[in-house]
Amino acid sequence: AGETETHSFEAEVSRLLHLMVHAVYSNKDIFLRELISNAADACEKLRHEALTNSDLIKDDPDFKITLSSDGEAGTLTVCDNGIGMSKAELIDNLGTIAKSGTRAFLDQLANNSNGDDGSALIGQFGIGFYSAFMVADKVEVVSRRAGDSEAWSWVSDGHGSYELSPAADEDALPRGTKIVMYLKDEEKSFADAVSIRRIVRDYSSHVPVPIQLMQMDEESGQLEAEDLTDGSALWTKSKSDITQEQYKDFYQYSSGQFDEPALTIHYRAEGRTEYSVLAFLPETKPFDLFDPNRKGRIKLYVRRVFITDDADILPAYLRFVRGIVDSEDIPLNISREMLQDNPILTAISKGVTNRILSELEKMAQKDEEKFTSLWEAFGAVIKEGLYEDPERRDQLFKLVRFNTTKGENRTLAQYVEDMKENQTSIYYALGDSKEAILASPQLEGYQAREVEVLLLADSVDAFWVQTALGFDGKSFKSVSQGGTDLDAIEKPKAEEETDDKSDEDKAKEQGSLAELITFVKETLGEDVSDVRISNRLATSPVCIVAPDFGPDRQFEKLMRGQKG
Ligand code: ADP
Ligand code: MG
């Protein structure tokens, strides 16, 4: 055999491994889920690559994941006949932290204050492979990239470095990856068939590659394969054959989320384009919801073959939706570039987007409480659609919920229904928080007339109000945008001031007000464009407003902030 090279882990990997080894994770089971999910990914990658190069799998066309253990030696092995890794890939994938998600995980863990130990974060952040060191004090990886002449062995005890060497002939597989975990003394029970079966059932029953457990048959003295899962795709089954539990497992496996799906959407579209959809709305925010790249997470399959998770099937404002779309019509060996403006994919995108929005609408009607908590998690994201997807704006307006001066979770329809006599616009106020907005003197005149005002505190709000033409024929208007709209709207009778001033007093008052205005104008000079007597205030003496037809003040602030 060739030489053994010693490589150091990237500093951040060492930090992560230290955590894995020393932190007491309450749920160590998930290491197996992570390794199985990597094995399944590797099979799906090769299945995809073999579409254009069938030689890669001709000797062994049936993908599978094989688990085996040796109770005496205290080892547990996960083996796959997937794509495998070259020497360079072993170094890149198992020695560095390429993914920002892992870094985000480390940050999150560092300021983890809610008492949980972070094991729930592992799947979400996809730091999968390294979790093997939670249960093993040594891990050995033997891998051969499909089609390569050489296989490589990677060994580490998780302390600072790993060793790479050409794999010994007796260890080298025809293709794929074998991972052997030398279990820590206190974790030896993970070699028991009973616990392996349980973990696979709990976490991996919907992996799209069959999983087998190899076991020595005491009587015959032969190794026998026991099928743990059949690798069939859940979405191909009919709804009535699937339990809620199975949907949940699939959601958690495929999304790396640990919550329950708030909504499960499973259907098959037939007609001009045929495809299946299994989509989930999470209950809680995924950690990368506000990542600048705003990537969606719908996986595209073509006739059960995984193609890409990069196809942008849903618009960015629905990026929190998880799941798969499986097309019957897209050509299997389509290239990534061709996929971008493939008319079939465009039709699918349109269909799935509309379906998800209409399911959301249904949910809003049927289960107000559930919808409200969904809105709290994802409302700020959905609102991006109000300016990015003008075609669906009206559909989105039916979903949007507002905090207003009248209450929480108000719809625009409710707003319009409660409009005052002579009120022609929908008023809003922008600000950093609901509390900050409510403290603004600009609301006073509206409050005094009991005119409802939308309190817009998400940063997207400043954008959509600029472009949305209106709702139900009523335009959106900022409370800070001058105007004398309020003159037309009467104050409620009870609050009207009793007018017992004499005409003489009134004239005097007018005169001194005019003097005051002149004084203020002269003092402020160029800094203001006008100074006016206003109807919008009730208790505060003055406030600053924007011109009727200029940008809103909060929007101006935002733009200035972005430039500076
Ligand atoms: P993730 O799966 O989120 O990418 P992991 O830490 O689980 O992160 O794995 C890191 C990388 O190592 C994978 O992206 C993949 O490239 C590679 N890898 C891990 N296990 C296997 C395997 N069984 N076969 C091929 N490649 C693998
Ligand atoms: Mg992984």
UniProtKB/TrEMBL annotation:
<dbReference type="Pfam" id="PF13589">
    <property type="entry name" value="HATPase_c_3"/>
</dbReference>
<feature type="region of interest" description="Disordered">
    <location>
        <begin position="477"/>
        <end position="507"/>
    </location>
</feature>
<dbReference type="InterPro" id="IPR020575">
    <property type="entry name" value="Hsp90_N"/>
</dbReference>
<comment type="function">
    <text>Molecular chaperone. Has ATPase activity.</text>
</comment>
<feature type="domain" description="Histidine kinase/HSP90-like ATPase">
    <location>
        <begin position="27"/>
        <end position="187"/>
    </location>
</feature>
<keyword id="KW-0067">ATP-binding</keyword>
<dbReference type="InterPro" id="IPR036890">
    <property type="entry name" value="HATPase_C_sf"/>
</dbReference>
<dbReference type="Pfam" id="PF00183">
    <property type="entry name" value="HSP90"/>
</dbReference>
<dbReference type="InterPro" id="IPR037196">
    <property type="entry name" value="HSP90_C"/>
</dbReference>
<dbReference type="InterPro" id="IPR001404">
    <property type="entry name" value="Hsp90_fam"/>
</dbReference>
<feature type="region of interest" description="A; substrate-binding">
    <location>
        <begin position="1"/>
        <end position="336"/>
    </location>
</feature>
<dbReference type="GO" id="GO:0005737">
    <property type="term" value="C:cytoplasm"/>
</dbReference>
<keyword id="KW-0143">Chaperone</keyword>
<dbReference type="GO" id="GO:0005524">
    <property type="term" value="F:ATP binding"/>
</dbReference>
<comment type="similarity">
    <text>Belongs to the heat shock protein 90 family.</text>
</comment>
<feature type="binding site">
    <location>
        <begin position="124"/>
        <end position="129"/>
    </location>
    <ligand>
        <name>ATP</name>
    </ligand>
</feature>
<keyword id="KW-0547">Nucleotide-binding</keyword>
<dbReference type="GO" id="GO:0140662">
    <property type="term" value="F:ATP-dependent protein folding chaperone"/>
</dbReference>
<dbReference type="InterPro" id="IPR003594">
    <property type="entry name" value="HATPase_dom"/>
</dbReference>
<feature type="binding site">
    <location>
        <position position="38"/>
    </location>
    <ligand>
        <name>ATP</name>
    </ligand>
</feature>
<dbReference type="GO" id="GO:0016887">
    <property type="term" value="F:ATP hydrolysis activity"/>
</dbReference>
<protein>
    <recommendedName>
        <fullName>Chaperone protein HtpG</fullName>
    </recommendedName>
</protein>
<feature type="binding site">
    <location>
        <position position="336"/>
    </location>
    <ligand>
        <name>ATP</name>
    </ligand>
</feature>
<feature type="binding site">
    <location>
        <position position="85"/>
    </location>
    <ligand>
        <name>ATP</name>
    </ligand>
</feature>
<feature type="binding site">
    <location>
        <position position="177"/>
    </location>
    <ligand>
        <name>ATP</name>
    </ligand>
</feature>
<feature type="binding site">
    <location>
        <position position="99"/>
    </location>
    <ligand>
        <name>ATP</name>
    </ligand>
</feature>
<feature type="binding site">
    <location>
        <position position="34"/>
    </location>
    <ligand>
        <name>ATP</name>
    </ligand>
</feature>
<dbReference type="InterPro" id="IPR019805">
    <property type="entry name" value="Heat_shock_protein_90_CS"/>
</dbReference>
<dbReference type="GO" id="GO:0051082">
    <property type="term" value="F:unfolded protein binding"/>
</dbReference>
<comment type="subunit">
    <text>Homodimer.</text>
</comment>
<feature type="binding site">
    <location>
        <begin position="100"/>
        <end position="101"/>
    </location>
    <ligand>
        <name>ATP</name>
    </ligand>
</feature>
<feature type="binding site">
    <location>
        <position position="80"/>
    </location>
    <ligand>
        <name>ATP</name>
    </ligand>
</feature>
<keyword id="KW-0346">Stress response</keyword>
<dbReference type="InterPro" id="IPR020568">
    <property type="entry name" value="Ribosomal_Su5_D2-typ_SF"/>
</dbReference>
<keyword id="KW-0963">Cytoplasm</keyword>
<feature type="binding site">
    <location>
        <position position="93"/>
    </location>
    <ligand>
        <name>ATP</name>
    </ligand>
</feature>
